[in-house]
């Protein structure tokens, strides 16, 4: 496979921001709608560990490369959350990781059942489950990279743009892993292709749905992806997906935005 997992695990570092002049936000803060989007992104990044928990009970856990990737990936996403939490803290918004975790513990049996449902589902599907997991991850990482790129461009704040570019560069490595894996696992495997197509077209929703309220999801999609420039990014994601084996003609990301009434 083209993605070098040993190199990734060796070179993976936490995203840094100590050298960036973010303190300037104290006197020149971001507008409220941008903070709302940043807060959403921060929650999504911190939520990665719950997603990881659900995945650890599936066949993906027994694949060495996937296992190694997810260990480092979870750490990188955690630090994305920390970086965004720091920017938010300069605006007087405090996002506490432990607090978020505690809230999730309180989510009760529905959340506790998730690993069980995942486990049962993936056992029924078998090894092809990993193909679905990989293409799902690829779509989410493409979305994350596009979101940070758009956020940086929209704000036009030099230091924030550098930070978001650093995060987006790590998201691009995540894309490379998931997309390489998805392609290899879908190629010549019509059953996996059918499953992946079915899962994506029936169940895929913008990253953060299921964590945030519908209203927040729509706000973020509107803020980042409405208008021709935003839609260009979305169409590019759909084009990437459609190039994967058996995914011709899928436009799941654009469809999700249309369903939310986000103007193209
Ligand atoms: Fe991230
Ligand atoms: Fe990522």
In short:
By secondary structure, the protein is mainly α. It is built from eleven helices and no strands.
Keywords:
binds fe (ii) ion, single chain, mainly alpha, globular
Strand and helix layout:
Layout lengths: L4 H7 L20 H24 L8 H26 L7 H9 L3 H17 L2 H28 L2 H29 L3 H14 L10 H12 L1 H16 L9 H8 L5
Helix pairs in contact: 2-3, 2-9, 3-7, 6-7, 6-8, 6-10
The protein binds fe (ii) ion (2 copies).
One fe (ii) ion (FE2) binds next to α3 and α7.
Q: Helix-strand pattern, N to C?
A: HHHHHHHHHHH
Strand content: under 5%
Spans of at least 5 consecutive residues whose pLDDT stays below 50 are none
Q: List cofactors, ions and other ligands.
A: fe (ii) ion
Quaternary assembly: single chain
Largest sheet report:
none
> How many DSSP-defined strands?
0
Query: Based on CA inertia axes, which overall geometry fits?
Result: globular
- Number of separate helices: 11
Detailed description of the structure:
This protein has 264 residues and is mainly α. It has helices at 5-11, 32-55, 64-89, 97-105, 109-125, 128-155, 158-186, 190-203, 214-225, 227-242, 252-259. Helix 2 (32-55) crosses helix 9, helix 3 runs antiparallel to helix 7 and helix 6 packs antiparallel against helix 10 (227-242). The longest helix is centred in the middle third of the chain and has 29 residues, at 158-186. 33% of the residues are buried. The model has no long low-confidence stretch (mean pLDDT 90). Bound molecules: fe (ii) ion (2 copies). Residues 77, 141, 144, 171, 174 line the site of one fe (ii) ion.
């Amino acid at each position: 496979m083209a993605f070098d997992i040993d190199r990734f695990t060796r070179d993976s570092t936490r995203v840094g921001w100590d050298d960036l002049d973010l303190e300037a936000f104290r006197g020149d803060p971001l507008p409220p709608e941008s903070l709302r989007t940043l807060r959403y992104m921060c929650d999504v990044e911190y939520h990665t560990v719950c997603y990881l928990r659900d995945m650890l009970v599936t066949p993906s856990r027994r694949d060495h490369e996937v296992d190694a990737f997810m260990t480092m990936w979870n750490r990188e996403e955690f630090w994305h959350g920390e970086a965004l939490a720091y920017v938010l803290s300069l605006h007087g918004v405090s996002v506490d990781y432990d607090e978020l975790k505690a809230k999730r513990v309180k989510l009760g049996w529905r959340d506790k059942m998730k690993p069980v449902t995942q486990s049962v589902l993936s056992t029924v599907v078998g090894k092809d489950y990993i193909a679905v997991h990989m293409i799902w991850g690829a779509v989410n990482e493409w979305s994350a990279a596009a979101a940070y790129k758009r956020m940086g461009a929209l704000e036009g704040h030099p230091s924030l743009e550098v930070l978001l570019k650093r995060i987006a560069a790590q998201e691009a490595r995540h894309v490379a892993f998931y997309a390489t894996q998805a392609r290899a696992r879908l190629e010549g495997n019509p059953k996996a292709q059918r499953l992946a197509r079915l899962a994506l077209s029936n169940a895929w929703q913008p990253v953060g749905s299921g964590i945030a309220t519908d209203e927040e999801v729509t706000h973020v999609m509107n803020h980042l992806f409405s208008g021709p420039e935003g839609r260009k990014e979305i169409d590019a994601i759909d084009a990437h997906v459609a190039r994967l084996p058996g995914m011709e003609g899928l436009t799941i990301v654009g469809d999700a935005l249309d369903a939310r009434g986000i103007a193209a």
